[in-house]
Amino acid sequence: MASAELTSLDEVISNSLKGKELEEFNRIHYGRIDQCALFISSVAAQKAASNGFEIKAYDFPARKEECRKPRIVRLGLIQHSIAISTDNPITQQRLAIFEKVQKIISAAAAEQVNILCLQEAWNMPFAFCTREKQPWCDFAEPVLTGPSTVFLAELAVKYDMVIISPILERDDIHGDTIWNTAVVINEFGKVIGKHRKNHIPRVGDFNESTYYFEGNTGHPVFETKYGKVAINICYGRHHPLNWLMFGINGAEIVFNPSATVSGLSEHLWAVEARNAAIANSYYTCAINRVGTESFPNEFTSGDGKPAHKDFGHFYGSSYVTAPDGSRTPGLSRIKDGLLIAQVDLNLCRQIKDKWGFTMTQRLDLYAQSLNEAIKHDYVPQVVHK
Ligand SMILES: NC(=O)NCCC(=O)O
């Protein structure tokens, strides 16, 4: 079976197991017997059916507390393929993606989503495999005035949503430099801040370091009307300290907008964002692109194999993990989709109280050790026999 044919691992299981065996699988694998699937309104279901995208919703309830009200928030994750082929003019490609995504966002609105996040570089093909500067750099946009921000700001106001928009940024104040950036737009359509990708891959066809540097915005947490959110962009999910810092700064939900392909990372996908949710007692939302993107000119991968035009298969499979480690099934590996998670943010503190990971994490010990380890003449702490 080709990589782009299997719909989802979750479906393989739910189609194969039944009764008690399926319950036991769910308990051990997902962390709960009942997936807590939520009803999808006919309006949203109709939008999904007529526009060819999947829509799924799950609940993450928390224990009722005496001293705090529940803090129920609806999160929306969108995964999608590009809309027209990459040899079309830039403006047409972008517009076609806007049209596709607008329909998915309107379904999210019909489902009362409060905070919505798109995939990495959602408004363009992931052309960084090519190492060509033109025309791909022309997709870069200023954060405040770029077409993607203008487009999403209007929808944010219309739907009373916070929208996270991961784009290729053009910083026209600092020498027209390019960055991989997530823009946070509040429910009034105002850009409340941005975060630039901290860790840039140099693996496989991910030649992103040809285009932009490691980010210089630290680990910001954005206090929104609905909760404290942060964004760990794609390759940052392999770096536990990147996740840790968002937790230290108080994040309750960390989105991980990604672009990654099956040949490289699919066996890691279900592990990393889930582990981060457990280790940091927050919700994580892992979002991946979908589809196979083909480029006009051939490129090589530096592995002795023939030059080719395809990046490989972006395998979707977006999912949400709660601070207790329970998770949703993934969206499809091959289809556009909207994943909705209704979460109670009170679960973050409840899990901190239960497991005590923030109390026991020994930041002081690691700060001292790391301070030593980064010195050029550091002697590793090894006891010789
Ligand atoms: N976009 C990106 O950082 N991809 C790198 C590959 C991966 O992290 O799986």
Automatic annotation (TrEMBL):
Domain of life: Eukaryota
Protein name: Beta-ureidopropionase
GO molecular function, a single term: beta-ureidopropionase activity
Family from the record: Belongs to the carbon-nitrogen hydrolase superfamily. BUP family.
Species in which this protein is naturally found: Bombyx mori (Silk moth)
Keyword Ribosomal protein on entry: no
Pathway: Amino-acid biosynthesis; beta-alanine biosynthesis
InterPro entries: Aliph_Amidase/BUP, C-N_Hydrolase, C-N_Hydrolase_sf
Enzyme Commission number: 3.5.1.6
Catalytic activity: 3-(carbamoylamino)-2-methylpropanoate + H2O + 2 H(+) = (R)-3-amino-2-methylpropanoate + NH4(+) + CO2; 3-(carbamoylamino)propanoate + H2O + 2 H(+) = beta-alanine + NH4(+) + CO2
GO biological process, one term: beta-alanine biosynthetic process via 3-ureidopropionate
Principal EC category: hydrolase
Assigned keywords, A-Z: Hydrolase
Residue span, CN hydrolase domain: 73-345
Pfam family, one: CN_hydrolase
Gene3D superfamilies: Carbon-nitrogen hydrolase (3.60.110.10)
